[in-house]
Design brief:
The chain has one domain: Protein tyrosine phosphatase superfamily (Protein-Tyrosine Phosphatase, Chain A), CATH 3.90.190.10. The chain is 43% helix and 10% strand. The protein has a five-stranded mixed sheet with strand order 2-4-7-5-6, with helices on one face. Strands 1-8 form a two-stranded antiparallel ribbon. A two-stranded antiparallel ribbon has the order 3-9.
Length: 292
């Protein structure tokens, strides 16, 4: 998505029973930290990568925005030893939710992955429009089509930003790093996918991590312009909005297909599209992968 509705953290802050996920140390059987104001947080550690190695725990994190971070959340994040936070939100997002919390010793890199003016009328309709307006904008599959197009554009139109992201991550001083957008699903999702491709993680593992954003304890509540949320929102409105707020495999597949259609292979995309040389990829793997 190029922009998010105002969102608030759900009161369901803990993992669902019987649904183990990777912990902040990459332990797939462990429990995750119960962050109150930060949603969709996870460590990418443990994902299988190139040459039988795995993503090194404690080096690469993803989440939703940090604007509503509580003191307890901030203490947890500070304890991760982060060096860099990549914020993919645009100026409109930041005005809507607020800037990221300041963490000691952390470099904040704002790298907008969407044009603040793009789709302004559309987002006004999503936020404040009546049912007829939402049906016209999102009905008959138009919501999912818009999302698919957005994922394609993130690959085609944001090569400069993604190139810079990989360049920075290849610097030892940049990691550990946390990457986020608003909900940590779309802009962060595609960016994380690109990093994982550079690390030799296969599509299936990338897709599995991407779909974790749908877990109930990770998702943000949809909040409309009138302040309504949850059960107060008309069920038909929620159904129309769902393509915008769900992580759907078809969206990420569209990003992968765009790479193949435009560059022919992941290797050519990384080298020709993003200027990520073999040396830089080797450096990324040295910093972010482990044999353990």
């Amino acid at each position: 998505m190029t922009q998010q509705l105002p969102q608030s953290a759900s009161t369901d802050t803990g993992p669902e029973t019987g649904n183990p996920t990777r912990s902040a140390t990459g332990n797939a059987s462990g429990s995750e930290p119960e962050l109150t104001g930060v949603r969709n947080f996870r460590d990418l550690g443990g994902l299988p990568a190139a040459d039988g190695r795995r993503v090194r725990p404690g080096k690469l994190f993803r989440s939703g925005h940090l604007a509503h971070t509580t003191d307890q959340d901030a203490a947890f994040l500070a304890a991760l030893g982060l060096h860099t936070v990549f914020d993919f939100r645009n100026a409109d997002d930041i005005r809507m939710e607020g800037p990221d919390v300041d963490l000691p010793g952390v470099r904040n890199v704002n790298m907008p992955l969407s044009d603040p003016a793009h789709g302004a009328d559309f987002w006004h309709t999503v936020r404040d429009g009546d049912l007829d307006a939402l049906r016209a904008a999102l009905g008959d599959g138009k919501g999912a089509e818009r999302m698919t197009t957005a994922y394609r554009q993130l690959i085609l139109d944001r090569t400069a930003q993604h190139s810079r992201m990989l360049e920075l991550l290849a610097e030892e001083a940049a990691v550990p790093a946390l990457l986020h957008c608003a909900a940590g699903k779309d802009r962060a999702g595609t960016s994380i996918a690109i990093i994982l491709l550079a690390l030799g993680v296969d599509h299936a593992a990338i897709e599995a991590d991407y779909l974790e954003s749908n877990a109930a304890h990770r998702r943000y509540k949809v909040r409309r312009g009138d302040g309504s949320t949850g059960a107060a929102i008309d069920p038909e409105v929620m159904k129309l909005l769902s393509p915008l707020f769900e992580a759907r495999l078809e969206y990420l597949t569209a990003a992968f297909d765009t790479i193949d259609e435009r560059w022919g292979s992941v290797d050519r995309y990384l080298t020709e599209g993003l200027g990520c040389t073999d040396e830089r990829r080797a450096r990324l793997r040295e910093l972010l992968l482990t044999d353990d």
